[in-house]
Every structure is written in structure tokens, then in C-alpha cells.
Amino acid sequence: MKKIVIGVVAVIALVFGYTLFAGGGGSDTIKIAYQGPLSGGEAQTGIDEQNAVKFAIELYNATNPDKKIELVSADDQGDGTVAAGVAPGIANDESIVAVVGPAYSGATIASLPYYKEAGMPMISPSATKVSLTDPTVAGEFGGPVFHRIPATDKIQGPALGKLAVSGVAAPKVFVVDDQTAYSVGLVEYLLPSLPKASLVGTDSTKNDTADFAPTVAKIKSKGANVVIYTGYYSQAAVFVKQLRDGGYKGIFAGGDGVLNSEFAVLAGAAAEGARLTGATVPLGELSPELAAKFKESQGVEPGVYAAESFDAANIIIEAIKAGNTTRATILAYIKTVAYVGVGGQTISFDANGDSTLGFINGFLVKDGKVVSTGAVK
């Protein structure tokens, strides 16, 4: 009979798109979920973030506490439609007390109705769309359950514009979005920040576009020397390769959706010199010792948003260590937390869920790798 029950639980988990990791369950185990893209074109982002959550849980469990933590993996492919099918299973599983994620803004918006109804505490390491913490935007505001570590696109937009045109004497900027909630939202804050009269054109392409020839033609006809793409890395790789093959030799820039080591891998030589932004600091810069332990534990180098994912998981873990084992008490803990993150900065959240951190860093693709260039000022 026990085998039959376990089998039914496994089937339910698969139907709702999530998977249990490690731990033995039972009254001495508490579960938190990670939600993000773990398959599909954006999988590397989710894998990078989930590795950091796994690492945080592993460090906690290694201390042999009375209450072990088990990770539940929820794969939303970074897509709102998929997320709407995954989130109900997480929300309705009463053994799950908090969520790290979702990773992407569109997936967050689609998940919010279920998590808000369930009172599920959420801390995203990377969702940056401004409306998620804007109480005036009905249907997208995540309060009171949603919180995030990174700065919003209200800060990233101007920083991306500044980095993209830096050193260009007479910038002619062409901006392309991918029609997703994140991409369009980033453009909203990017455009007003560009130097006066520098914008020569815009275009909007679907996030599954295979042929960018019409967009490349528009860019060439406008004589653009700076192209900014506000979508995600898998499409950015396709776009920049076709852009370079079409003879474009100017600056290529993108926001944190493009900021991933896989972008450089997928785009190859075409990615060289790309300028990227993100509200993140590489874990290796913040703590070489911790990064070494991470690699030993996970078998890979820490990826983008590893530090923020590690901090998000640890805020929830600290709530549990303080004796909070229900969604309501963990949410109350998060609301008043003053957590010293891996970088030494204190992380707190305002009434709408935004953190006290407000920086944007620049990155450059150099010799096939994404390297940090420091704060965009």
C-alpha cells in the first residue's frame, strides 16, 4: 500500500510540473520550492539559480538541524503560460511553505493569482519588471506575498542605455524588444534615458523568431551603430549572429535577460564585445571561498544570479531556523527581515516587496566569457 501511495504522489507532482529533491519527508522535513526555467531555451538561467538554492539548503542540512529542508523543483520554462499550469500545484501543496522565484517577470505575473490566494511567501532573485511591486497596477502587483532581491527595470533601463552608448561619439540607437512582459517593460524605462535625438528606430519581434532579416534590414537602413535588445539570451544569440552576418559592426547591448554565460556559448564569435547589464554581482567576486565551496558542491561554477538566489534561499532558511514553519509566519518574518547577504549588504524589503539594494552592474563578453565590469554609474 505504501508503494501505491508514493506512486500517486509522484504522478501528481509530474502533472503539475514539479519534482521533489532529496530529503526523506515526514514531520521533521519542511519544503521550499524553486520556480524558474529548468528546460527549454532559457533553462540555463533556472539551472544556475536552482543550483544556488540547492547549495544553501545543503549547507543548512549539513548542520543536522531537527528540521530538515527539502527542495521542490518547479519548471515553468520562463513562460507565463507554462507557469500558470505549474503554480497551482505548488500553491495547493500545503507542505511547501515558501518559493524562491519565479525567475522571470512574465512567469511571475502568471503565477501570482495562485500564490496570493494561498498566502505563499515569494522571493525572486531576478524578476525585475516594475509593476510587480507597483500597487497601482492591477493584476501584476505581487503584494503582499511577492518580494525580490534585484533592483527594478526603472533603474536598469537608464543604466543599460548609458552603458550601450558609452564611448560612442555620435550614437544612433536602434532598440528591439521580444514582446514579453519583461522586455517591453524594460524598453519603457530605457527609451527616455537615451541621449537626445539618438534613437533612430525600434522594432518588436516575437520571442520565438527564427529569421531576424527584416529587423536587420531596418537597422542597416537607419545607419544604427548601437543595437539594444531587451529580450532573453537564447533569442539574443540568434539575433546577434544574424546581425553580424548581415555586416553590422556596431555595439550590441542587452539587459539581464541576455546576461548569461550561455549567450556567449550560443552566439560564439558574434557575441564578442556585447555589453550587458544586471542587478547582480558574481558570487566569485563577493566571496571566492564560498564560490569554491559552491563548485565543489554543485560540480559547476556559480552562474548569473547565484548570489541573489543564495541570499533569497537563506532568508527563508533563517525564518525556518527562527521557528517559523508556516506560510503566514515565514511571510511575516520576511516583511521585517534585515538579512546580511553574501556581499555584506543588508537586505530588507519595503511595503511593496522591493529590496533595499539598488545597483546595476555592467558586463562584457570577452574571449568567449561574460565578465563583470563593475557598477554602471
What report would you give on this structure?
- This protein has helices at 2-15, 43-61, 80-92, 105-118, 153-165, 181-190, 213-221, 233-245, 261-267, 283-286, 288-298, 306-321, 327-336, and strands at 18-21, 29-36, 68-75, 96-100, 122-124, 146-148, 173-177, 199-204, 226-229, 251-254, 275-278, 339-340, 346-347, 361-366, 369-375.
- α3 runs parallel beside α4.
- Residues 1-15 and 22-26 have low confidence and may be disordered.
- Helix content is 41%, strand content 19%.
- The longest helix has 19 residues, at 43-61.
- The chain has a 7-stranded mixed sheet with strand order 8-7-9-10-11-14-15, sandwiched between helices. The chain has a 6-stranded mixed sheet with strand order 1-3-2-4-5-6, sandwiched between helices.
- With 377 residues, the chain is of the alpha/beta class.
List the SSEs and their pairings.
Blueprint: H1 2-15, E1 18-21, E2 29-36, H2 43-61, E3 68-75, H3 80-92, E4 96-100, H4 105-118, E5 122-124, E6 146-148, H5 153-165, E7 173-177, H6 181-190, E8 199-204, H7 213-221, E9 226-229, H8 233-245, E10 251-254, H9 261-267, E11 275-278, H10 283-286, H11 288-298, H12 306-321, H13 327-336, E12 339-340, E13 346-347, E14 361-366, E15 369-375
Parallel strand pairs: 2-3, 2-4, 4-5, 5-6, 7-8, 7-9, 9-10, 10-11
Antiparallel strand pairs: 1-3, 11-14, 12-13, 14-15
Helix pairs in contact: 2-12, 3-4, 5-6, 8-9, 12-13
